């Protein structure tokens, strides 16, 4: 039985998978695949180069409709695309533009906004970050205080955002701002796009425990942005935010990336066992890897069910929460296995070097950093506690 037959794919989808396989192996530069295969952090340099290659092929936006420059692929094709790219150590697509704000612009933007903004996401010209969380508005996002007042043809923004991933390298930010305090808090929020080089914006890095530069706080002091950069209706940004968050928790990439990490960690454990030459027993780690593989396949089944529901326009219910919860848990378990494989001495030397990702004396730093990075997986994008509450309320009803 072929792998495609075992997957239950018809010949059309199997042929599509083979086309993707051939493209991934020939088109993705070896130096980029090496970064992904080693579990190193993918930077803007790798993301943009790969995005340009995909764009030139016509595959720059697998999840977008053809009329706005996407592939027009259905959800099954998108899932196969993500799986094949992960299997071949190709970088994931940069989510903020293609997976987050792009679909919001497609759904809520004007014809002028679509024509002006979407092509620059497709070719990688615009690199977005997300301005949602604030010091007093994280899980309770509707409590945000960053304000935007209308002044002629501009909004004037004042406030602060925090935990803003990639703000130091982005040239655009999509952000939630409060444009009214008259209605209940969810109804006074708007979504606006702001160029990061606008006067009055200050970006300050936040040093995180993993040593990778990715988190920032962003300050806005009388920042003027064109009023036609507001997406959707004024005061209706909460609708856009919910639309984005539903898709953030249910992209096919989540499950595909999980399988990629599992394969990376498996290679790491096998290599560590080979080098140890019997001096350490790795059977316990291999057993844990098998359990992670089972849960990874379970996440894929959940994703397949959600995919079928999307195709047939059935309500998704708690499936996005269940998939997000599963992927975050397995990712943490996998990187814990990786940390056990490199051993406590490497972790001690990494910390002794100051936890710097460029520490030349700690070759195992990548997996120590991955371990620390994934600690946030059960917080970012909705905490695991919140996801469990959502699932419990659906199953048992609210008290």
TrEMBL record:
Keywords: FAD, Flavoprotein, Oxidoreductase. Pfam families: Acyl-CoA_dh_1, Acyl-CoA_dh_M, Acyl-CoA_dh_N. Residues 129-223 form the Acyl-CoA oxidase/dehydrogenase middle domain. This is Acyl-CoA dehydrogenase. InterPro entries: Acyl-CoA_Oxase/DH_mid-dom (IPR006091), Acyl-CoA_Oxase/DH_mid-dom_sf (IPR046373), AcylCo_DH-like_C (IPR036250), AcylCo_DH/oxidase_C (IPR009075), AcylCoA_DH/ox_N (IPR013786), AcylCoA_DH/ox_N_sf (IPR037069), AcylCoA_DH/oxidase_NM_dom_sf (IPR009100), Mycobact_Acyl-CoA_DH (IPR052161). Residues 235-395 form the Acyl-CoA dehydrogenase/oxidase C-terminal domain. Belongs to the acyl-CoA dehydrogenase family. Residues 14-124 form the Acyl-CoA dehydrogenase/oxidase N-terminal domain. Its cofactor is FAD.
């Amino acid at each position: 039985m072929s792998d495609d037959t075992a997957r239950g794919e018809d010949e059309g989808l199997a042929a599509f998978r083979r086309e993707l396989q051939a493209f991934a192996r020939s088109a993705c530069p070896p130096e980029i695949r090496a970064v992904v295969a080693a579990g190193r952090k993918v930077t803007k340099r790798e993301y943009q180069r790969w995005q340009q290659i995909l764009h030139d092929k016509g595959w720059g936006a697998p999840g977008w409709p053809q009329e706005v420059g996407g592939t027009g692929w259905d959800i099954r094709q998108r899932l196969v695309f993500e799986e094949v790219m992960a299997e071949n150590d190709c970088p994931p697509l940069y989510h903020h533009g293609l997976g987050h704000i792009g679909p919001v612009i497609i759904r809520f933007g004007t014809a002028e906004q679509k024509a002006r903004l979407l092509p620059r996401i497709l070719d990688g010209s615009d690199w977005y970050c997300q301005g949602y969380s604030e010091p007093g508005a994280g899980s309770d996002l509707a409590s945000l205080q960053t304000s935007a007042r209308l002044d002629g043809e501009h909004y004037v923004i004042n406030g602060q955002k925090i935990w803003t991933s990639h703000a130091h390298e982005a040239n655009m930010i999509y952000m939630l701002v409060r444009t009214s305090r008259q209605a209940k808090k969810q109804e006074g929020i708007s979504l606006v796009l702001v160029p990061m080089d606008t006067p009055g914006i200050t970006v300050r890095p936040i040093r995180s425990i993993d040593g990778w530069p990715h988190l920032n706080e962003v300050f806005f002091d009388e920042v003027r942005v064109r009023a036609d950069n507001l997406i959707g209706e004024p005061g209706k940004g909460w609708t856009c935010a919910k639309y984005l968050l539903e898709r953030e928790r249910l992209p096919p990439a989540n499950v595909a990336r999980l399988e990629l990490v599992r394969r990376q960690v498996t290679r790491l454990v096998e290599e560590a066992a080979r080098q140890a030459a019997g001096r350490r027993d790795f059977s316990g780690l291999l057993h844990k890897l098998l359990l992670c593989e089972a849960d990874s396949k379970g996440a894929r089944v959940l994703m397949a069910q959600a995919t079928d529901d999307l195709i047939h326009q059935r309500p998704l219910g708690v499936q996005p929460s269940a998939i997000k919860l599963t992927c975050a848990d397995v990712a943490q378990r996998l990187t814990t296995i990786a940390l056990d494989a490199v051993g406590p001495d490497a972790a001690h030397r990494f910390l002794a070097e100051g936890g710097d990702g460029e520490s030349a004396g700690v070759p195992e730093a990548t997996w120590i950093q991955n371990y620390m990075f994934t600690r946030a997986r059960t917080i970012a994008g909705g905490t695991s506690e919140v996801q469990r509450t959502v699932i419990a309320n659906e199953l048992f009803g609210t008290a």
